[in-house]
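User: Last request for today: this protein with iron/sulfur cluster, please.
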Amino acid sequence: MNLRTGLHRRFTDDHGNAYVYMANSAAIHALDPLADRLTGALAVADASADTVVAGEADPAAARAALQDLFDLGVVRPADERTPPRAELPPMPFPLATLVLNVTNKCNLSCTYCYEYGADKLTAANAPPGRAMMLPETSRQSIDFLLRSSQDRPVVTITFFGGETLLNFTTIRAAVEYAEEQALRVDKRVHFALTTNATLLSDDVIRFLVAHRFGITISIDGDQKEQDRHRRYRSGKGSFAEIEPRIRALLATNRRERGRPIGARVTLTQDAGSVLDTYRFLIDDLGFDEVGFAPVTAAPGRGYELSPGAYDKMLAEFAMLAEDFTAAAIADRPHGFSNLNDMLRELHQGIQKAHPCGAGLGLLGVSTEGELGLCHRFVESKSHAVGNVRTGVDEAVRTAFLQQAHVDHKTDCTRCFARPLCAGGCYHEAHVRHGDARRPNLHACDWIRGWMDQGLHAYARIMAHNPRFFARYETA
Ligand code: SF4
Ligand code: SF4
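Assistant: Here's the final one, the structure of the complex with iron/sulfur cluster:
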């Protein structure tokens, strides 16, 4: 029987110690020099066990090491065929998060916004949906969530827009109702919200902090970065408006020991330095976390990232990852949430059949109560999966999840990044490739490059401060 290595990625810590990340199991294994040599040989060409161990100084030790690698799944029979199974978990899958698009209006007019720009998914010629979700629809949504969460003890309601805080009336009504109903059915409910920060009044801040909202602020950096794309319809930048409001929110949240507040930065072709933006948002404004996301854009938009811009972003992420790693080794907190999220997934051995929870544990609700795969699909009739009043159309949901399974994405089945990427965001795939079920192959180099950085950081932190990972082991 000839042997070969399973699909994997080799990486090292800064002493050169080797590890492998296995795509089929999402397991990480440390390799001693002998196991590393054997794995390296079988990654290049199939060979029999006799051939592989023959060149080793101690063939008996090599044979034992090979057996260990086989037992761990690092080495497999060369002719082993694992047909894609594309299995779904038992359906209907219990709902964990419902994203309520409480409004489809916004008071800003950001140039790259998918909600208003040419990339909006609203069906052609469809009448515009109701601008504001009624409190009654939010209550029906909450009943639907509690019903559909089956025996999950905790559910999350995320408020989204347009600009979410334009409909604070419904947010307030929904929170009061959700707390009441969750108590009645003995569940806990968490709240989250994304906002552009322009409407953060003192009242709103007090309310959000008192109800322990997980808050994400969409902001692109300092005045120059923010005002480049995040502007009012008049063309006026929004930085001057949001800065004092964000400072007030962060100060109240810190005083009241609220949940960490994150900034979400959209990176465009013309964005400045990632490093400078991170430092400004953390050190100057005082955010707890910052996450960066490349802009979603169909080909041909002026702000979409070129291959060179992806390379620049990766190089800057490497510098931030270096900072994060040094902090983790010294047991200091660090707010680079892209890396924090990846380390958590690596440590927990996350292996995704789908890129995200959309359509599975997470659904979006339109202002009128229609259910979509997630908040970005809520007014796309072609991606509707039911209604909060009548429930999920399970046949439609299951058919989509089946077709979007990573086992059906041929390139992904040959890619080591598959367990965490699984083909990437459905919305981006729809915008870029016209089909939410297709993999985002335009971004693979960037995804794999970023994952290499995460694996290297993982190894380095593991070598110097393994206790760091305890934070990812609690529920
Ligand atoms: S989209 Fe690209 S990077 Fe992601 S799993 Fe598929 S092939 Fe790999
Ligand atoms: S489809 Fe994209 S936007 Fe929607 S939840 Fe998934 S990753 Fe997020």
